[in-house]
Write a structure and sequence with these properties.
The complex is a heterodimer. The longest helix of chain A has 24 residues, at 206-229. Chain A has one domain (2-325): ABC transporter involved in vitamin B12 uptake, BtuC, CATH 1.10.3470. Chain A has helices at 2-15, 18-37, 44-60, 65-87, 92-111, 116-119, 128-136, 160-181, 184-194, 196-201, 206-229, 241-254, 261-283, 291-312, 321-325, and strands spanning 144-147, 150-153. Chain A has a two-stranded antiparallel sheet with strand order 1-2. In chain A, helix 2 runs antiparallel to helix 11 (206-229) and helix 4 packs across helix 11 (206-229). By secondary structure, chain A is an all-alpha fold. By secondary structure, chain B is α/β, with parallel strands linked by helices. Chain B has 2 domains: 6-114 and 176-280, 3-Layer(aba) Sandwich (Rossmann fold); 282-312, no CATH class. Chain B has helices at 6-10, 66-73, 97-103, 120-126, 136-139, 142-162, 178-190, 208-223, 235-241, 259-264, 266-273, 292-311, and strands at 26-37, 40-51, 55-59, 84-87, 90-91, 105-107, 196-200, 227-231, 244-249, 252-257. In chain B, helix 8 (208-223) links the parallel strand 7 and strand 8 (227-231). Chain B is globular, with a radius of gyration of 22 Å. Classes of the chains: A mainly alpha, B alpha/beta.
């Protein structure tokens, strides 16, 4: 019984972790790209890394918090322009190739020993260099608060403050996407996803609208990167291809082109993985699979689950099956 | 459009004419549109004028370059060099497809481009021009566009009723039949109040029951003062509704004139219609075995072969 409660507790803790919220925001951005507009962005982690670098370096160099956030967002806009200008006029697959390469290029540039004074190279930027102004904003005070399975410092490095802000941003992101998706602009995005040429023949500037969608989704990515690094540090390798694929798993799980799908997908993805890990730890003896191996086992199960999901429920949990029937 | 009364608008240019002849009131003037694909010249049109307010058909054998020509003048493809064309008085050289559409020349596609995973109503509403809510920065403020949205919806309902799609308005476009999708595409194009509508094979894949109503719709568009240019293979339709016929073969314009005269033109017969242009291509008798027609055809084929052998 104790192990069951332990597993449930750690699932609950993972579900509201700031990193989960950060991935949820990144997936909200990916949903604007892929779900609504049909843009294949295979480098959402690159956007996160750009946002995180922009934010962390600006704060370390003495910029006030709002300015640092704006710099992080502006960096993602520049990235969108650089990626989008040459590729958005071409067929969709080109954007996928360009984004995945760009994300890797950004990561490798961040790792360059030459840039050690700027990006901290492979060591990254320690959280203490940029976290303080954010913590100073906290009005939760000192001390510790316990609530169900959740017990954290009110402010702290990885406490309630960063959780409240992170999920507040998730809520804002959902609200913004809802406002945009119900508008005629959102209708245009879906039209472009279905058939660009048809929209062009109706006199709409398809390129400009795709660029707007790329920029908005990328800004969500950058915001996600900032939140991702707040309770830890800026590590280029923690925002690599793997994180992009987690984002894709979460969006397919929750349901693309839905409003709450990205959030549900991200929460379920991280909580389920903890469940698999905890369950395997508790039931399989160490002689067969030790703790380190159950960690790897949990990733394998996640991969298999993703395959089953795409085969048997391609619309995700919240998606509309009817929409997929006409996918020609 | 306004300074011409109905009668001159509807009167097609008289008689047969040389390809590229001048019209009294052209809405579309095309000069020197050339498109090479590698070493092949797909389209090489020297001069073409399309008369305002009439139905013009563009016909020609397979591979004549009709659809390529269509793509070129609607901005979906770029001419190889030095093309000039103007629509309703303003030059359109090198413009993008969306700008051509905004100028008032809206097209449909040979392979229908209904937006399958959107409802019929959403399809229609995308067709409307100048929507405030399509501006990203205003889109999140619903009060700014909700009134306009209502007007567009009413307009869409009117068009859907005219095209007999009203009871399908909440269905996904992907669930419509091929013919209904053609209707939807045409109705969607009309949402923008175009001056000229370009239909790429509007009858392809449409069942005969719908054909009649489609024909009626196209004629109604002309009667409303719109200019129609369409590409078509179905000779029935061309004879039936077109006021003027332009014939292309191997990328060039070879003839134009009224349907009857063009089809009697030996150049056209050679290029396209073959020796049997006056037989009804829609006649079932052609398909029946042992009919007189079949025997007659067989005889002629044999005759031709022997004459060819003689030459060789």
């Amino acid at each position: 019984m104790d192990t069951v409660i332990n597993i449930l507790n750690s699932m609950a803790r993972e579900a509201i972790a700031p990193q989960t919220a950060a991935v949820a925001i990144a997936v909200i951005g990916l949903n604007v790209h892929f779900g609504f507009t049909g843009l294949l962005n295979m480098g959402q982690a690159g956007y996160m890394l750009v946002g995180a670098y922009g934010f962390a370096i600006s704060v370390r160099e003495g910029a006030p918090l709002p300015v640092a956030i704006l710099i992080g967002l502006a960096a993602s806009v520049v990235l969108s322009l650089v990626l989008g200008l040459p590729t958005l006029k071409l067929r969709g697959d080109y954007l996928a190739i360009v984004t995945i390469s760009a994300a890797e290029i950004i990561r490798f540039i961040g790792r360059q020993p030459l840039l050690e004074n700027v990006t901290g190279a492979a060591q990254g930027i320690p959280g203490g260099d940029y976290r303080v102004p954010f913590q100073d904003l906290s009005f939760l005070g000192a001390g510790q608060t316990s609530f169900g399975p959740w017990n954290y410092f009110n402010t702290g490095v990885n406490g309630w403050w960063v959780r409240v802000v992170a999920w507040g941003v998730v809520f804002l992101g959902v609200l913004i996407v809802w406002l945009l998706a119900r508008s005629p602009w959102g209708r245009l995005l879906k039209g472009i996803r279905e058939d660009e040429d048809a929209i062009r023949s109706l006199g709409k500037n398809v390129f400009a609208i795709k660029m707007q969608a790329l920029i908005i989704g990328g800004m969500f990515g950058a915001l996600a990167g900032m939140i991702y690094v707040l309770p830890s540090s800026v590590q280029p390798d923690s925002m690599g291809r793997q994180l992009t694929f987690f984002c894709w798993t979460a969006i397919l799980l929750g349901g693309a082109a839905t409003i709450f799908g990205p959030v549900l997908g991200a929460v379920l993805f991280y909580a389920t993985r903890i469940f698999i890990k905890g369950f395997a730890n508790a039931t399989v003896p160490d002689s067969i699979m030790n703790t380190q191996q159950t960690e790897q086992f949990s990733w394998i199960v996640v991969g298999v689950a993703l395959m089953l999901l795409v085969i048997f429920r391609p619309q995700g949990i919240l998606g509309k099956k009817r929409e997929l029937q006409f996918n020609v | 459009m306004s300074d011409h009364d109905q009668s001159t608008q509807l009167a097609p240019p008289a008689g047969a004419a040389e390809p590229g002849s001048t019209k009294s009131d052209p809405i579309l003037v095309v000069d020197n549109v050339v498109r090479h694909f590698g070493g092949m010249t797909a389209v090489d049109v020297g001069h073409l004028e399309v008369q305002r307010g009439v139905i013009t058909a563009l016909i020609g054998p397979n591979g004549a370059g009709k659809t390529t020509f269509f793509n070129l003048i609607t901005g979906f493809d770029r001419p190889t060099a030095g093309a000039h064309w103007s629509f309703d008085g303003s030059a359109l050289d090198k413009t993008s497809a969306s700008r051509v559409a905004r100028a008032g020349m809206v097209r449909t596609f040979q392979l229908t481009k209904a937006l399958n995973r959107m409802t019929v109503m959403d399809n229609m509403m995308l067709g409307a021009r100048g929507q405030t809510g399509e501006n990203l920065f205003l889109s999140w403020l619903k009060p700014l566009w909700s009134n306009q949205e209502k007007e567009i919806r009413d307009k869409a309902l009117g068009l859907l009723e005219r095209f007999k799609l009203l009871d399908k308005q909440d269905d996904y476009a992907g669930s419509l039949s091929g013919g209904q999708r053609k209707l939807l595409e045409m109705a969607r194009a009309l949402m923008s109040d175009p001056k000229m509508i370009m239909l790429d094979e509007p009858m392809a894949g449409v069942n005969p029951a719908l054909t009649q109503s489609l024909l009626g719709h196209i004629q109604a568009l002309r009667d409303d003062g719109m200019t129609v240019l369409f590409v078509e293979h179905d000779m029935h339709m061309v004879r039936h509704i077109s006021d003027w016929v332009v014939v292309m073969a191997e990328g060039k314009l070879i003839a134009e004139g009224k349907a009857g005269e063009v089809m009697a033109n030996p150049v056209v017969i050679d290029a396209y219609l073959g020796a049997h242009h006056d037989t009804d291509l829609g006649d079932d008798a052609l398909l029946e075995e042992g009919s007189d027609m079949e025997e007659q055809l067989a005889d002629e084929v044999a005759e031709e072969e022997t004459s060819r052998e003689d030459q060789a």
